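Researcher: For the annotation table, I need C-alpha cells for CTLH domain-containing protein. Please keep the output clean. Sequence:
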Amino acid sequence: MPRVNRVLKPGTGQISITDLADNLPSSNPSATDDPDPPSPLEPSPEQVPPSRARSSTSAQLVSAHPQLPAHITPLPNINSLRRRLQPGNSRNRAVPTASPRLPQLEEVREGAHDSYSPGRANSRSPSRKRRRLHTMRPDSLSSANGFSPVPNGSTQRKAGLNGQSASANGDAHANGSGKALASSTYYGHNREEVTRILIQSLYELGYSGSASALSAESGYQLETAGVATFRNAVLDGRWADAEQILVRSFKEGNSQNGQKATPERTLVLAEGADRSEMLFYLRQQKFLELLENRDLAAALLVLRQELTPLGYDVDRLHALTSLLMCPADQLHEQAGWEGPISSSRERLLADLSRSISPSVMIPQHRLAILLDYVKQGQIEKCKYHNTAESPSLYSDHHCDRSDFPLEVSVNLTEHTDEVWYCGFSHDGSKLVTAGSDRMVLIYDTTDFTVIHRLMDHDSGVAFVSWSPDDTKLITCSQDKKARLWNVETGHRLLTIDHHSQPVTAAGWAPDGESFVTSSFDHQSQICHWSIRGSSIHMWKSNFRVQDCAISPDGRRLVAADTEAKIHVFDFRTYEEDYCLSLDSNPTSVTISRDSKYMLVSLKGATHGEIQLIDLDTTAVVRTFKGHKQGEYVLRSTFGGANENFVVSGSDDSKVYIWHKENTELVEALEGHTKGCVNFVSWNPADPTMFASAGDDRVVRIWSRERDRSRFAVGPSRSSRGVSSNGFPLTSALRTTSAF
C-alpha cells in the first residue's frame, strides 16, 4: 500500500509530494494488493526521481481515468492539491495526520501502479481490488443484523452471576473503539440466550474447548457459580449440601425475580417453585439409594424424619413405605427407577431444574428440544408426511402426494361374505382377514397368496390379534369362543370356551406369554389367560365389553363397555385406575405405540367421532370428524410412519385419513362398492401400504401408484368373482344394540 510523503521545499513555502510505494505499512494484517513482483521492464520506485514520479503518476491517472471502476474517484489535479496545502491557506495551516481523502488517494495509486506497464496506458483494464482480510464480510450481512468481524484485542465482558453480561445491552467492542461490535439481538432473538444455548450444546456435543472459547469471547457464562455447586452436589450425592443451597435460596426470597443476581451458594428460583416439592425429590432419591444399598435402618430414618415431616404427596409417601419390604432385585421396577444411580441422579437434576430459573440454569438439551419443535412444526404442516426419517435442518420439509398410498393395488376376494377384520403382522410379512363367513385367512404380503385357511369357528369372526413375535394369533368369534393358532403350521393350539356370550376382542401381554379376552358376558367380561390355557385373573363387574387393549408397555388394560364408559385398569395389580364417561357408546379402543394415548371411536346418530385421549390425564387431546358411523361397529387405528395419521372406515364405503397432529382430513378414499368399511390396518413395516376390509366382501390393498407394478399378478386375488347379488350389511356382532 503506497504512502504519500510531504516535504517542505526550503525557501519556497511549498510542499513536495512523493509516492513511497516501496514502504508497505507494517500494521497491515492482510496480503499486499499486488502479490506479483514488478515487471523487469518497469523501473523500480527507487530509480525514479520525485518529479518524474509525480508526472508519471499523474499521466497514468489522466489516461486511466475513463476506465477506472465506478467506485474509484480520480485523483485531483496535483497543482490544485498544492494550492490547498499552501501555508497561507487557513484550512491547512497544520498538516493533518489523516485526511478523509487519503484512503481514496491510496486506492487510486494502487490501481494505477498495478495496471501500469510501458506502451499500454490506453489499453489496460481496471485493476481487480483484492479484499482485505480485516474488512471482509458477507455482502448481505452487517454488524446490525448479528454479524461482526473478529475482534482484535477486544476486551472481554464480565458476566453477571445469572449468566447475563455486565454490559447493559450485551454489546462487544473491537480494537478499543467505542463502536458496538454487535447488537443485543440476533435476528430478533436475545443474543445472550442464543449464545448460552450454543455454549451448552457445544458441551453436550463434546466440543468443550470450543464451548470455553465461545464463553470467553462472548463474556456469557453457561451457569452461575451457585448452579454449578448445586449441580455437583446432586450428581455426587452430597444431599446435605444440595439441601443447604435450596433452603438458602428460598430464604433469600429471590424466586420472585428470575433476573436477580444471587450469591455463590444460592439459586434463582422459577416463579411458583415449591420448596416442599424440591426437598421431597432430593430426600426421595436419598431414600431409594439407601434402599438399593440395603441400608434399611438409615432409609427408615430418612422416611420418618425427613420425608414424612414435609407432608408432600401422601400417596407417594405410602408407596415409598411399601418399598421397605421390597426385594432388592425388584426395587427398580416397583419404584419406577430405571438405570444405574448416575442416571437416576441426572433425571433428578432435570426434574429439579424445572423449578430453577432458566436465566441461571438452562434446561437440559435445550437446543435439541428447540430443533425438535422446529421439525415437529414442519411435520404438522406437511399434509402427506409419511416417512420415519427425521426432516433435514438444511431445508424446509415437504412430502409429495405421490408418495402417499392412494391407489388400490390388489383386491383380495377370497371371502364369501362381509369382511369384519384385517390386520398386518408386526413385521409386515403377513396379513390376516376374518369375517361373517367364519373364515380366517392368512396371506403372504409379498404376493398376497393365501398361506392358511382357518375354518374351525362355528360363527362369524369379528377380531384377530397377533402375538408380539407374530408366531401366534387369537381369533374371537360370535360362537362364544376364542382360539389360539400357530401361524407357521396353521394348527389350533388352544380353545377358550369360558365365555357365555360372543367374544369381542383380545389383547396380548408384551412378553407374549399371556393374553386377555373380552366378551359381552356380564359375569366374566374380561379374562386373563396364559398361552397354556390356565386362567390367571378374571374381572367381575356388571358391564359388557365391546373392545379391549393392553398398552405396549404392559402397564394398563383399557376396556370399552357398551354403556358409554372407558375402564382403565392397572394390568400389574388388576385394580381399576379410573372410569371415564363418554358422550356416546365407544365401538373400539386402540393404544398408541408409546403407550401415552388411546384412540376411541364413538358412534352417533349419523356421524361418528374419534377422540385421542391422554391416558394419564384423561384429557381429550384431538377430535377427528367427517366420517359416518351409526349403529355399526367401526374400528379406528393409527397409521403411517411414526403413527402420523388416524384412519377409519365409514358407513359411506369410504376410508377416511386424518393428520394426527392438526386433525386435518387428508383423504376420503373411494374404493369399496357397498356398505361399510369395517376395519383399516396400516402395514407397520411399510408406511406406503394399508389394507381395508368392507361389507362388499373385498379386502383392498392400498399403495402408491408407482408400487402397483410390484405385484406380478393382476389386481384381483381370487378364484371366485364378487357376486353381483345383494347381501346383508348387518350382523348380530356388528351392531351394539343386538344384546
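Researcher: And a one-line annotation?
Model: Confidence is low (pLDDT under 50) at residues 18-76, 78-180, 254-262, 718-739.
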